[in-house]
Amino acid sequence: MSGKTFSFxxxxxxxxxxGVIALQSDETIERDMRxxxxxxxxxxxxxxPSDEEVSAATLAAMEGHLSAAAGLFxxxxxxxxxxxxxxxGTAQIGVxxxxxxxxAATDTAAVTQPLSSxxxxxHALGVKRVAxxxxxxxxxxxxxxxxxxxxxxxxxxxGSFEVATEATVVRIAPRSLEEAxxxxxAGAQVDALFLSCTNLRTMxxxxxxxxxxxxxxxxxxxxxxxxxxxxxxxRPPAHAPGRLFRV
Length: 247
What we know:
The protein contains eleven helices and eight strands. 39% of the residues lie in helices and 18% in strands. It has 247 residues and is α/β, with parallel strands linked by helices. It has a four-stranded parallel beta sheet with strand order 2-1-3-4, sandwiched between helices. Helix 4 (87-93) crosses helix 7. The mean pLDDT is 96. It has helices at 29-36, 56-61, 66-70, 87-93, 95-103, 114-125, 138-150, 166-169, 174-185, 206-213, 220-232, and strands at residues 17-23, 42-48, 81-84, 111-112, 129-136, 154-163, 192-195, 217-219.
């Protein structure tokens, strides 16, 4: 007994297509991206193997897996932009290498990551000096500060939670972030505050910190989403937090 075969029509998928390569150990970036991006965007997420311990060596090791992760995006249509979701990993691997690894395995109009996204955000806001709050140990934070300095952004004020594991980073309470940020910014001669790391839960602290500090507050996931939307010609939703989305 044979079944009935049906004919069908096809539709042209025209929504903006954005891809994010998240770290295996990251528990925050997917939620933040779905909050920051408008509903009409098609968001695709792949994962890159990453060690639970965060060090220069483990961050650098992700380079060897980036193309495989990028190759897991759907191949039926071109991506408008792909973001690699690791701030310190980008500083360790290098902007050009990240882009080459991603573009070798997926068809995309643009590649970015939190480091280039932060630099673009600083340019848009006229920021030259930032206070940097990092969750990580000295060797990891130091490489990021060097990469920013080489790109013309100084970090004269710096603080860290000195955490070495991602499972701890994601569990740093927003209240602790706010307290550390306010302490770091007390009397600081800087243009903005940057909360580094895509695994930090920062969305709820951006608006209150900007209100208290009177200066822009930037975070890894916020700048990455903003830059991806800029590259793809997507208008951010009204609820996206921070002065960055008002420029």
